[in-house]
Fold:
Amino acid sequence: MTTVAAYAAPAANAPLERTTIERRAVREFDVLIDIKFAGICHTDIHLVREGWGEAIFPMVPGHEIAGVVSEVGPGVTKYKVGDRVGVGCLVDSCRECDNCKAGQEHHCVRGAVQTYNAIGRDGEITYGGYATHVVVDENFVVRIPDGLSLDVAAPLLCAGITTYAPLKQWGAGPGKKVAVVGLGGLGHVGVKIAHALGAEVTVLSQSLRKKDDGLKLGADHYYATSDPKTFEELAGSFDLIVSTVSAPLDLSAYLGLLKTGGALVNVGVPEEPIAFHPFSLIGGNKILAGSMIGGIPETQEMLDFCAEHGIGAEIERIAASEINQAYERVLASDVRYRFVIDNATI
Structure:
């Protein structure tokens, strides 16, 4: 075991504080990663504050990890010391079920092991990226292409794959009209990716406050959902809508924006249940779906795609001592568009 510095929440709703944690010794197929940057995801806040249910404490959040390999186990073949790598939302799975064999480890039927707030298959609690180092099996590590800076790449390990996966699955591309609901940590990356895929992209946001940003990021159109005329004007317009917000929406209204056979895919997760009228779904054979990150192969595909198209997150780098303040700013939508911790400050 190795003792490393970290920032942890000692209990639910408690401020995060500097502490130390134990990382396991490097096993045969493990890599030790010197974490350079860790993104702050809204999921971190949901879990620290038990918005999605009971959690494990003390908790070291962080599943947007970018760093450099500093040690490898004797059986490692994919990475060497000095490689630029990332770790996303999961660090293990059964590797035997049909989903795992198909590269869909996040849908492991026996349960994927999350990067933090989970119990690993060794019985130990997992701790995330708000730390100086992490030890991960090589099969759950991805390579960060040279064309991406580590700081702007870190949020792609969650925000990037979370938006890339549904855009690819539901055919975003030339000739398709795609709407992204919310221009936040997830949404701004989704806009960039949808644009790079060749789709006609519309941002649907509560107000026009971020319109200039949205258009610069690649959106073709930008509408305020607080204006009822938006839903009248855009009725039946979209092949695909990706909702990135963690607030409850009027799903019936958004389903009305879809073309016949169109899909509304939720990647944001509100803390409250959402209701909708079934007629808004069956009228027009519409699809209401969900999407949760992606497997390891698709995460690597996403990183390669982003490097090819010059896509990184829009970030504000912070010191670890600013994490608690950053959480409050995320809740106030006061970030454009992703906080990234400089882990050298831990």
Q: What stands out?
A: The chain has a mean pLDDT of 96. The first helix runs from residue 42 to 48.
